[in-house]
Amino acid sequence: MKKALITGITGQDGAYLAQFLLKKDYKVFGLIRRVASRDMSNLEYLDVADKISFIDGDLTDEASLISAVKRIYPDEIYNLAAQSFVGISWDQPLTTFDINATGTLRILNAVKTFCPTAKFYQASTSEMFGNSNDKGVQSEATYFHPRSPYAIAKLAGYWLAVNYRESYNMFCANGILFNHESPIRGKEFVTRKITDGVAKIKFGLAEDIKLGNLDSFRDWGFAGDYVEAMWLMLQQNNPDDFIISTGENHSIKDLLNTAFNRVGIKDWSRYVKLDPQYKRPSELFTLKGQNGKAKEKLGWKPKVGFEQLINMMVDVDLERIKLVAKKLKNKE
User: Is 158 noted as a catalytic residue in this protein?
Assistant: First the structure.
């Protein structure tokens, strides 16, 4: 039985990846910080919380990473832990860099020293490209021009994985994932903010949704599809870096149209308020990934399309908010 260690296991990607690997008969270990109250809601939603072996550790604590790697001696390591919200990275740049960049260095050093045969997956991001291509189409050959502290820190992690691959002959693969969402995406992300807001508006629990730039275009896919690509990267004979995307992009306005249409509201404009606080100090306008390399070498392609994804998220949020509305009514 193969052993996999996942950092960031309580997040969206960690939960879906754990579910995927368990179906592949892996022994799954989840690195988890020692805190007073652990949020297991994503793992519980996917019904995998009781099937995972948890081990205390933190990307900011090198000793805990060494201990985890020595104890488990995993076949595969998926480094998904991060300060993953772009907006917060301007307010907390040092913390973001310590986790996303230096944290990657800490775990790479632990692997190099104590488990050099492990295959290592580094979660990279399309945010690293910034506005590097006027046509908004990015491939593995597109140059990087990060536009946020988050993206800069992630780019450092990307190059660290490449450097350790080339310097120490380690199996290190970068997955450059474009935006990927799901019903368990955090509400601080615009997709879930919108689907949750639409559900609240439908049940009369909110009057509007406050947003920033409505003209940004993103390449949105389903997180459940993307974790398969992570696994496929580590099944190759040689490590490499891959863009994982749908190859399509849509604007925030497209997202609003789809989400509001799902609940029978045709004109969303009267429910959306523009708020300057949600604008980035430096905007990233268009992202669209070329996924031909992943299709050819990994045999991977996305299964869930944009409208299906947004409808799925709206439907789940409707069920959640319906229960909230029912409880509030019973209290009246």
Answer: no
